DNA sequence: CGAGAATGTAGTAGAAGTACTACATTCTCT
DNA sequence: AGAGAATGTAGTACTTCTACTACATTCTCG
């Protein structure tokens, strides 16, 4: 039962940094399609990868991943 | 490549609360042996389960899980 | 328009995580 | 000593995650 939904903010953080999936994937040491799968929510990362992502973006895991939907930032 | 080591403090937190693996497993909605595997480090949990564990213990994920070894609390 | 980069979709294959069962071992506690 | 709880070990089966390849689509910029 690890198939439950985990929401993530990877696209937002990546956009903030202005880096491509390919570059992020390279920095994380994973395949670039893996980042695509994560961003599209096709599955959630392993804990190992989640920790690496949080480490890369220099934020706590909870800032990127959550069991509950994130509040929208822009509501215009 | 999610086979890398993730250190965890589940045994310590569980001991602090004085609950058994069985009870923790029940609270998390997983098999009690799964908790055993995690505590023994046979594998690390999915992100989903890690978030549930952090939620259960009411601490950030980083308090329980880390890519790097935790400092020992008692060094006597 | 044309080229290259970024992203989306689809498929196979293998590694890792979880469930479950059964039994052994250790630990309390009376 | 004996009972019951907690924990460790072993094994099978299934799901999820990751790698990888290939190709389609969209975007950007000359």
TrEMBL record, chains A, B:
Domain (HTH cro/C1-type) ranges: 13-64
Sorted UniProt keywords: DNA-binding
SMART domains: HTH_XRE (SM00530)
One protein family per Pfam: HTH_3
GO MF: DNA binding
Leader sequence segment: none
Highest taxon of source: Bacteria
InterPro entries for the chain: Cro/C1-type_HTH, Lambda_DNA-bd_dom_sf
Protein name: Transcriptional regulator
Annotated organism of origin: Planotetraspora phitsanulokensis
